[in-house]
Structures are given as C-alpha cells and as structure tokens.
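Action item from last meeting closed. Structure (84 res):
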C-alpha cells in the first residue's frame, strides 16, 4: 500500500490513520525509522530489554519508551537487588 504525503516545514510526516490501524500503531507509540540506500523505512517499535536484549517479553516501564525497557526476568532480578 503506497500513499503520497508531503513533509511539513518542521520535516514531520503524518502516518495516515488507515495505515497506522492496519499495522497496529497507536498515537504516542514508538516507531523505528531507518534509512538505507535512499529508502526510509518505518517500523512499529518492539521493546528490547536494556539488560539482556530479550525482545519477546520486554515492556516499557512507566510508559517511557526506549530508556526503561525490561523483560520480567531482569525486572525481578533488579527488584531482588533493591530489596537486599
């Protein structure tokens, strides 16, 4: 599915509502943007644990995208460290 969009003066792009819905992207959600060989790719961001790198079960802690992504195993490990 291809759409034509203009970039704003601030260099922003709005993702059309139907495309965002099709890919499960909601407002305020993180996305990954990469550029390779002149092609810009936009992907839904998958949380990645900051400690072990797990992407299957990692979640963003307190809604802070990117900086506080942890998997349950590492979160429990940190909890034990703080309780000692």
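Sequence:
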């Amino acid at each position: 599915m291809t759409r034509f969009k203009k970039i704003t003066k601030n260099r922003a792009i709005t993702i059309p509502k139907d495309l965002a819905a099709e890919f499960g992207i909601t407002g305020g959600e993180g996305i990954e943007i990469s550029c390779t060989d002149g092609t810009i790719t936009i992907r839904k961001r998958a949380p990645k644990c900051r400690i072990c790198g797990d992407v299957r079960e990692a979640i963003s802690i307190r809604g802070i995208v990117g900086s506080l992504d942890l998997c349950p195993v590492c979160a429990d490990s940190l909890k034990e460290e703080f309780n000692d």
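Note appended to the action item: DSSP finds two helices and four strands in the chain.
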